[in-house]
Amino acid sequence: MKSPYEGVPEEKWLALTTKLINKHPLKKEIVETVMQSWEDIFNSKIGSFSIGKEIFPSPQIMSFFLHELVAHNLSLKYPEIYKVGEAKSEKDIHHIQNPAMGIEIKASSNKNKIFANRSYAQPSSDSEAKDKNGYYLAINFEKFSKQNKKPKITLIRFGYLEHRDWIAQKASTGQQAHLSPQAYEKKLITLYQADKKSGTSR
Questions:
Q1: Helices then strands, each counted (H, E), the chain
Q2: Residues 161 and 124: beta-carbon distance below 8 Å
Q3: Diameter of the chain measured on Cα atoms
Q4: Alpha carbon of 10 to those of 2, 104, 120, 138, 157: distances in Å?
């Protein structure tokens, strides 16, 4: 699919990103769904043990829970439109009627960065059915600690990313990719940000 940013000067990327986000049918429901999914984690048990009371999962596991629950909650609300991505060709949140409106989810306990497998920095090959370009939901959250047994969502952003926005680790053993500064500034829009001082959002 042709890049919507092709031929568009960088100084106009942010305005274009805003237009792309406003076109997406889930824009107004993303924050509510993420927050509901986060609360669902703390209302869950593994065996007879409660998360946040007896069990304190690592950031990687909390990220996995978010991936699953956000997609599941949307599939329950709109069963004929969204489903949890399963096939190689499907995004994490798969739009049944229009796959171009599918969403990839990236969650991290980093303060404001998200990460992906280094393969995201490469164009999709014929053997890879999933298009790496498209809508992305970026979620940042706090880690568990002795002082913080009920971590919070700190940042929710939504945007449109492409493989060229990801930068693979240079080391041959590195398996990670991070976003360029321009992608953070002009291709992701903040929908929610926790205020550390008051605990509110803006």
A1: 4, 11
A2: no
A3: 56
A4: 17, 23, 21, 21, 20
Residue bearing tokens 């739009």: 95
Q: Are 130 and 124 in contact (CB under 8 A)?
A: yes
Q: Quick one: tokens of 200?
A: 């509110």
DSSP 144: P
Write out the chain's pLDDT in tens, 202 residues: 689 999 999 999 999 999 999 999 999 999 999 999 999 999 999 999 999 999 999 999 999 999 999 999 999 999 999 999 998 889 999 999 999 999 999 999 999 999 998 888 877 665 556 788 999 999 999 999 888 989 999 999 999 999 999 998 776 555 789 999 999 999 999 999 997 543 334 4
